[in-house]
Write a structure and sequence with these properties.
- By secondary structure, the chain is mainly α.
- It has a domain of about 230 residues.
- It is about 75% helix and about 0% strand.
- It is built from 34 helices and two strands.
- A two-stranded antiparallel ribbon has the order 1-2.
- Strand 1 and strand 2 form a beta hairpin.
- Helix 3 runs antiparallel to helix 5 and helix 18 runs parallel beside helix 21.
- The protein is elongated, with a radius of gyration of 35 Å.
- One of its GO terms (biological process) is monoatomic ion transport.
- It comes from Rhizobium vallis.
- GO terms for molecular function: antiporter activity.
- It is a multi-pass membrane protein.
- This is Putative monovalent cation/H+ antiporter subunit A.
Length: about 800
């Protein structure tokens, strides 16, 4: 077990190692370095592949290391059918993406930086799907947002890329904060901090009064990451990233993180009316919106991006539908979509790379120049369209078997899915056929077949889509059934195959094909119709995002100008108003005022003298006509307090107070004299009254607090602790010194740092003043006097 844990930890670290090595490897080997870099994800893939037989038997693999045991925090991972399938897709497709990027970005000046980013993203996504502890899961979840920001904005010299990267970060990162709140609620409801333990707490979570709040928070996090309506707009804009990024994001990684979360929490939060209403509703809406928007695009990548939005909506619909076969259909479609969408995106990149354009209206007749690419595109399109003999056909059949029913709910969602699938059918063949058929069209670059690094990845994915269907029993045993079993938390045996199975699902598939052929036949008209509808609908959520961001910036500017006007007196006044309110309001509201003290009758003469000194100092501050006199008079208050400490048996504290007051007076006097401020305090009478009232309020508040504290029963637990352990643990006889330098040494270090920074700031202020004086004197000898 120790060997498995160590090897798994090593496999999780391989993407990080690839990120560190990528710039050096690319600098030495150029684009061919992609073959070396692909070894890292390939080794991780082979490691996770070893667990397939174990997981297929219904077992799970867990491991990790305790981090902060007292808080039940650990660096732990958990592999079951769901997480293992995602790990295999991330590392397997990641290997092909690394090879593809080597050919796609050949000669790019920042290719090494790109590989570092893609490996960091791979590691973050891998961490999401294998993490067991809430803390690990959330950290990796947010890391996917940060690394995707770097990838989407890779071409940072273009404004569109910067905007798309920022938009993706804001939407997905903001959703992550909602998810954090949801995880904290789940922790509060279940009392566990690990996903593997949370799975068994479904009844506790569903019966909690906080269930609905936790569900909404989790759904916001999942919907933003998986681009569900109305958060779908960031995903097509992310097409500003290089095509290898688009292929990776849309096939197996970031956009499916939200789907993974919903599948993982299905045993915990599923099977409730809220779950079975919200997920199918938003999933179905996203399915239709994505498919309709895909029809209206002319850019190959955008068409595929919107179909990804549509497919994600279909997965969310299936997870929340609640029927017996819906989870099995989601598992099949998850695998099928990863294979065909990764292949089609890479095909779109090949077309762009070899012709110089992705505009479908400017492409045609590429079959003669790029026959291999055309075959790969057609194979992937068959799977996306749900046609045999590809795995997408099995997924579509299972989807219709799961949704079909006689009640109004089943009929509604079946109609939605048939409509969405028909549109995706048309888009699949528009991408796979229109650029290759027809007469040749002049393109910006002379087209020719792509090099091996570009076509190898999509070819492997297309072939896998074929073999996964032909050998469906093995595919189900290794992937589909374990995924479904993990989602449903019960044994599942999926047996759908390419063998003829006459029934309603097949009839719905035929209806989908006929509708899809009709849309494809009238594709130009359909695109024009969608364009008209989109114009009539308005600008949509994407424009709303811009308005929200600009409004937020304006609001922040106004708040900043109001709260940070640049005047120190306003800052100090606001601070003391808050202090006075905090000290006075709670004891008055909650009736916690202290008892009036009884003045002792045995006050001695020297004690009266100390109070008289303090009163004289206070009077001096109030009647002082210049600031310097007020500073010196103010120091008298501190000296009086120091004497009181001395009289009541705290000589070390008294000495510290003497030093602080002396330094304060000296530093303040030095600053006041060097800065040449106005000598006298010329505040208007009304301001003096306000400041005096505020000072009395703060003083009264602290007085009441101290009186209330001293009237409480004395708890000597800390005193006994320090007296007992100061000598034995810290090896010091002076308890006060031991407390300062050992028991709260970090606090003391912080105080020293504050004093040091303050001193440096004062020194800098004086030096700036001195420099200004020299410049003024050099230009005009009389300037200093005028400026002063």
């Amino acid at each position: 077990m120790a060997d498995v844990t160590a090897l798994t930890f090593l496999a999780l670290c391989l993407p990080l190692a690839g990120a560190l090595a990528a710039p050096f490897v690319i600098r030495v080997f150029g684009a061919n370095g992609a073959w070396l870099l692909a070894i890292a994800p390939l080794l991780a893939f082979l490691h996770f592949l070893r667990f397939v037989p174990v997981i297929a038997r219904g077992e799970a693999v867990a491991g990790g290391y305790a981090w902060v045991p007292s808080y039940d925090l650990s660096f732990s991972w958990f592999l079951d059918g769901l997480s293992l399938a995602f790990a295999l897709l991330i590392t397997g497709i990641g290997t092909l993406i690394v090879l593809y990027a080597g050919g796609y970005l050949r000669g790019h000046k920042d290719q090494g930086r790109f590989f570092s980013f893609i490996f960091l993203f791979m590691g973050a996504m891998l961490g999401v799907v294998v993490s067991d502890s809430f803390l690990m899961f959330f950290i990796f979840w947010e890391l996917t947002s940060i690394t995707s920001f770097l990838l989407i904005g890779f071409d940072h010299e273009r404004e569109a890329a910067r905007r798309a990267a920022l938009q993706a970060l804001v939407v997905t990162g903001g959703g992550g904060l909602f998810l954090l709140a949801g995880l904290l609620l789940l922790w509060n409801m279940s009392g566990v901090t690990q996903l593997s333990l949370l799975i068994g707490s479904g009844d506790v979570v569903r019966e909690s009064p906080l269930y609905l709040a936790a569900l909404i928070l989790v759904l916001v996090g999942a919907f933003t990451k998986s681009a569900q309506f109305p958060f779908h707009f960031w995903l097509p804009n992310a097409m500003e990233a290089p095509t290898p990024v688009s292929a990776y994001l849309h096939s197996a990684t970031m956009v499916k993180a939200g789907v993974y979360l919903l599948m993982r929490l299905n045993p915990v939060m599923g099977a409730t009316p809220a779950w079975e209403i919200l997920l199918p509703f938003f999933g179905g809406l996203t399915l239709v919106v994505g498919a309709v928007l895909a029809i209206g695009q002319t850019d190959l990548k955008l068409k595929l991006a919107y179909t990804t939005v549509s497919s994600l909506g279909l997965l969310v619909l299936l997870v929340g539908f609640g029927s017996e076969y819906a989870v099995e259909a989601a598992a099949l479609y998850l695998v099928a979509h990863s294979l065909f969408k990764g292949a089609l995106f890479m095909v779109a990149g090949i077309i762009d790379h070899e012709t110089g354009t992705r505009d479908i209206t400017r492409l045609g007749g590429l079959m003669r120049a790029m026959p291999l690419t055309a075959i790969i595109a057609l194979a992937a399109a068959f799977s996306m369209a749900g046609l045999p003999p590809f795995f997408g056909f099995l997924a579509k059949e299972e989807i219709y078997a799961a949704l079909a029913g006689s009640d109004i709910r089943a009929l509604t969602f079946t109609s939605i899915v048939v409509f969405g699938n028909a549109l995706m059918f048309a888009v699949a063949f528009a991408v796979a056929l229109k650029p290759f058929l027809g007469r040749s069209v002049e393109t910006p670059k002379h087209p020719h077949e792509a090099p091996v690094l570009l076509w190898l990845g999509p070819a492997i994915l297309a072939v896998l889509g074929f073999f996964a269907a032909v050998f469906s029993s093995s595919t189900h045993a290794a992937l589909s059934s374990p995924i479904s079993a993990a989602i449903r938390q019960s044994p599942v045996d999926i047996d759908i195959s390419l063998a003829p199975h006459i029934g309603l699902p097949l009839a719905l598939s035929v209806l989908t094909v006929l509708l899809g052929i009709g849309v494809y036949w009238q594709f130009a008209r359909a695109r024009s119709l969608m364009t008209v509808l989109l114009r009539a609908a308005g600008r949509g959520p994407d424009h709303g995002f811009d308005l929200a961001v600009s409004g937020l910036v304006r609001l922040a500017g106004r708040i900043t100008r109001f709260t940070q006007p640049g005047r120190l007196d306003i800052y100090v006044t606001c601070t003391f108003v808050c202090v006075a309110a905090i000290l006075l309001v709670p004891p008055i509201v909650y009736v916690e005022l202290p008892r009036l003290p009884v003045w002792p009758a045995d006050v001695r003469l020297h004690e009266w003298a100390v109070f008289l000194i303090a009163a004289v100092g206070l009077a001096g501050v109030l009647i002082a006509r210049d600031r310097l006199t007020a500073i010196v008079s103010l120091g008298i208050q501190g000296f009086a307090v120091s004497i009181i400490f001395l009289l009541f048996g705290a000589p070390d504290l008294s000495f510290t107070q003497f030093m602080v007051e002396t330094l304060s007076v000296v530093i303040l006097a030095l600053v006041m004299t060097r800065l040449r401020l106005v000598a006298a305090d010329r505040r208007p009478f009304g301001r003096r009254i306000f400041d005096g009232t505020l000072a009395l309020g703060c003083g009264l508040g602290f007085t009441l607090l101290l009186m209330r504290a001293t009237q409480m029963p004395f708890n000597d637990a800390l005193t006994a602790f320090f007296n007992t352990y100061s000598k034995s643990i810290a090896h010091g006889a002076n308890v006060v010194n031991v407390i300062i330098v050992d028991f709260r040494g970090t606090d003391t270090l912080g105080e020293i740092a504050v004093v040091a920074v303050t001193g440096l700031a004062i020194l800098a202020l004086i030096r700036i003043r001195a420099g200004t004086e020299r410049k003024l004197a050099a230009n005009d000898p009389h300037a200093i006097e005028a400026e002063g």
